[in-house]
Design brief:
The complex is a heterodimer. Chain A has helices at residues 19-24, 29-59, 66-71, 83-118, 127-146, 178-207, 220-251, 276-310, 317-330, 346-374, 383-405, 408-414, 418-448, 454-480, 499-529, and strands spanning 2-3, 263-264, 267-268, 560-561. Chain A is mainly alpha-helical. Chain A has a single domain (29-258, 272-561), classed as Cytochrome c oxidase-like, subunit I domain (Cytochrome C Oxidase, Chain A). Chain A is globular, with a radius of gyration of 24 Å. Classes of the chains: A mainly alpha, B mainly alpha. Chain A binds chain B through residues 3, 5-6, 8, 10-11, 125-126, 195, 198-200, 202-203, 206-211, 213, 233-234, 236-238, 240-242, 244-245, 248, 252-256, 259-260, 272-275, 277-278, 281-282, 285, 560, and chain B through 1-4, 6-7, 9, 32-35, 37-38, 41-42, 44-46, 48-53, 55-56, 59-60, 63-66, 150-151, 154, 157, 161, 165.
């Protein structure tokens, strides 16, 4: 079963004893994974509260929230937020969710914890870089949060920070002085952290696979983290220079993104000749791959978990991995579909439309493979399984609206409406978070050695599942009738009759958010009071289930696991009555 | 990649009583070290970053007619030669260290000499790198004397951005080189060259990147 050769010296380090080295500046990928998860949890909580404030303001614009008035006297005088402060909170909601939740939770958190274990390594290739990448991310988080506490609050330019609004200082509006500086610096720091992390993931996957762990035997989650890290390496390498140029426009007086002749606050801006479209190109060259950085890890997590509860092998594993690689490749050719109405040449809009429609093919292949895996299965309907099925549902619901938005003629009408908000929240945010939820319920026993409560989990699933449909389905309708996004109040004649729909969405959002408290409570309760987990409670095949729960410091107790099988050996009939074969199970006669 | 060969026990021999891991001196050069894999991945990211900067330059130059051409400071030609020379000295260092293991058994004196020349070449490489960075600063001063600053014109903006970003990356390379020098030097007499392959890849890449940037700037500004 085990190879007793010595541990390779490249990544060998001793178990730390001091508190600081063990829990704070730890080199252990498992601790770093949990730190990322904790940071994502904190960010998602703040982001969720921000979305509540935004929704409340949209449905009940004159409602008085005294606490908000105390926290930001300028942004919400007397407890009612100004239109600008609405945009500030919107910017922070988007930024926190996209960067610190959707990038951190499914990719950095679970990837850090499970990628090395799933390939049979003791740690990441570069543990010191790994520690640095978490603490750099944390620094980026602190800098981003600091923008709440500067005099004019966070920036109002949205998570996409479109120039020239984002490139000009305080003349352009509130939040665009210090707040926007902090935003740009924070994102630049985040880029460096993500690059370090991606580098580590790739090197680890290439060089540290244990004996027998060929690429063909890697679990699908590992494949997804690997492909995602390649995407992240190339995407964040473009956002970083974009941020550098943005910062220079802001602080050094250059004119990369700011055109000439701009008069703001009665002042002629001292810039000339810059191209606002250049920012959009650079940003979306990162921004579209970022969508796949958010969703691919979740697809990999679902593809790993679903067969465990379906008790049958995943259908077409090669097609699934091939689709992931195809998506990674195509993700770099479609950025222009975010810019159909930006004034770009209409011919190039068509050029971007075609690969955007082509990218739906691998996405559809993956969805069909997951759905077909469930066909005829004797499902074990435990919480992770429910979130897997929920993932398929929301991914399809969000994906279908993508067909419409991919076509320039339709997008011209739907652009910047709630239809787009519904689309990306379903396909990117909710789908990705369902992957995180499935992963949490599935891997919690391995990470903390205790099972999570299944009844609470099921309550959490059904309330969340129905809740997100109540929140985002009506937004399609709002978008179709022309309700634009980023407005803080709907006073126009054609928008005012839609306020009842907004009230429904707001109430649904508050309830869905409240349902997440069940999840928070389940996490905390199970951490201390959950039933003790066995080594392999779900009867899964991959390597993390062949070690103790939680794994020892070096993951496999001084041994190297040897891999003989792929991760997909479910539904077999063993003499001992079990129906699966571990990746480490040696074939008879060896 | 090298999961099987990594697990072979390393054959050890001694040079003047100090251990030399054959697997890390000559052997390591034959198969990729993990640090080398890491550097290659980093090189991909850096290439992407400078590709983005390049596309920004091309788009910005075409965006409006305010692009102002200027004469590149002459010292850049000298700087380029200095950086190219540093790549040569680094190549010599690597060759010397790889000869150490082969020479230990036959003639320890020759091995010692190889080691000394290797170390010397590393010092020269680091010094040439520092000289290059100093030369770049002189080029900045030359530009400033012409009245061309960061915000004067998009062409000068890109000049400062490209040279500064490349300079920062090269400073990182110098730090890495000093780290390797300390690492090899600490175990005096041994040729434990773990990481040398990685720094070689990085350094040569920085060299090639500069030649690319220099040509780009020469053509565009």
């Amino acid at each position: 079963m085990h190879d007793d050769s010595p541990v390779p010296a490249v990544h060998q380090h001793k178990a730390p004893t001091s508190f600081i080295r063990k829990y704070v500046f730890s080199l252990d990928h498992k601790v770093i994974g949990k730190q990322y998860y904790g940071l994502a949890l904190l960010s998602v909580f703040i982001g969720m509260v921000l979305s509540w404030l935004l929704r409340l303001h949209l449905a009940y614009p004159s409602w008085n929230i005294p606490l908000l008035g105390k926290l930001s006297p300028a942004g919400a005088p007397g407890g009612v937020m100004t239109p600008e402060y609405y945009l500030s909170l919107l910017t922070m909601h988007g930024t926190l969710m996209v960067f610190f939740v959707l990038t951190n939770a499914p990719f950095a958190a679970f990837g850090n914890y499970f990628l090395p274990i799933q390939i049979g390594a003791e740690d990441m290739a570069f543990p010191r870089f790994n520690m640095m990448s978490f603490w750099t991310t944390f620094l980026a988080f602190v800098v981003m949060m600091a923008s709440f506490f500067v005099s004019d609050g966070p920036p109002i330019s949205g998570w996409t920070a479109y120039a020239p609004l984002s490139a000009i200082g305080k003349d352009a509006g509130p939040g665009l002085a210090m707040g926007q500086d902090l935003w740009a610096i924070s994102i630049a720091i985040f880029c460096i952290a993500s690059l370090l992390g991606a580098l580590n993931f790739i090197a680890t996957t290439l060089d540290l696979r244990t004996k027998g762990m060929s690429f063909g035997r890697m679990p699908y989650s590992t494949w997804a983290w690997f492909v995602t890290s390649v995407i992240a390496l190339l995407a964040f390498a473009v956002l970083l220079p974009a941020c550098v140029l943005l910062i220079l426009d802001r602080v050094a007086g250059t004119s990369f993104f700011i055109p000439g002749g701009l008069i703001l606050s009665d002042k002629l801006q001292p810039h000339s000749g810059g191209s606002p479209l250049l920012w959009q190109h650079l940003f979306w060259f990162f921004g579209h791959p970022e969508v796949y950085i958010a969703i691919l890890p979740s697809i990999g997590i679902i593809a790993t978990i679903l067969p465990v509860f379906a008790r049958k092998p995943l259908l077409g594993p090669r097609a699934l991995v091939g689709s992931m690689i195809a998506i990674g490749f195509l993700s770099y050719m479609v950025w222009g579909h975010h810019m159909f109405v930006s004034g770009m040449n209409p011919f190039s809009a068509n050029l971007f439309s075609v690969p955007t429609l082509i990218i739906t093919i691998p996405a559809t292949v993956m969805t069909l493979l997951l759905t077909a895996t469930v066909y005829g299965a004797k499902m074990r309907f435990e919480t992770p399984a429910l979130f897997c099925l929920g993932f398929i549902s929301v991914f399809i619901s969000g994906g279908i609206s993508g067909f419409y938005l991919a076509q320039p003629s339709l997008d011209t009408y739907l652009h910047a409406t709630y239809f787009v908000v519904a689309h990306f929240h379903f396909v990117m945010a909710v789908a990705s978070l369902f992957g995180v939820f499935a992963g949490t319920y599935f891997w919690f026993p391995k990470m903390f050695g205790r099972m999570m409560n299944d009844t609470l989990g099921k309550w959490h699933f059904w309330l969340t599942f129905l809740g997100v449909y109540c929140v985002f389905m009506p937004m399609h309708y709002l978008g179709l009738v022309g309700n634009v996004r980023r407005y803080s109040a709907f006073v126009d004649d054609y928008l005012a009759p839609l306020i009842p729909v907004h009230k429904f969405i707001t109430i649904a959002a508050l309830l869905t958010g409240a349902a997440q408290l069940i999840f928070f409570w389940n996490l905390i309760w199970s951490r201390f009071r959950g039933p003790i987990a066995t080594e392999n409670p779900w009867e899964a095949t991959s390597l993390e289930w062949s070690t103790t729960s939680p794994p020892p410091f070096d993951n496999f107790g001084g041994h190297h696991p040897v891999v003989y099988n792929g991760p997909n050996e479910y539904g077999v009939e063993n003499p001992d009555g079990t129906d699966f074969v571990m990746q480490t199970a040696a074939p008879k006669g060896t | 990649m090298a999961s099987d060969s990594r697990k072979q026990p390393k054959a050890e021999s001694t040079l003047n009583g100090v251990h030399v891991a054959a697997g890390s001196a000559a052997g390591a050069l034959a198969r990729p070290e993990i640090s080398e894999t890491g550097v290659w991945i980093g090189v991909c990211a850096i290439m992407m970053t400078f590709a983005a900067f390049t596309s920004a330059l091309i788009v910005r130059q075409g965006a409006s007619p305010d692009w102002q051409h200027f004469q590149l400071p002459r010292i850049l030609y000298l700087n380029t030669l200095i950086l190219l020379a540093s790549s040569v000295t680094l190549g010599i260092a690597r060759q010397q260290f790889s000869s150490v293991a082969g020479a230990i058994a036959d003639s320890p004196a020759a091995a010692k000499k190889y080691f000394a020349v290797g170390m010397y070449s590393l010092y020269v490489t680091a010094a040439l790198g520092a000289l290059f960075v100093g030369g770049q600063i002189l080029a900045w001063r030359n530009l400033a004397a012409q009245g061309l600053f960061l915000s004067t014109n998009p062409s000068s903006s890109f000049f400062y951005v490209f040279t500064a970003m490349h300079g920062l990356h090269l400073l990182g390379g110098i730090v890495g080189l000093i780290y390797i020098i300390c690492k090899i030097g600490r175990t005096t007499g041994t040729a434990r060259t773990t990481g040398l392959g990685a720094i070689c890849v990085y350094w040569h890449f920085m060299d090639a990147l500069w030649v690319y940037l220099f040509l780009l700037l020469a053509m565009r500004t």
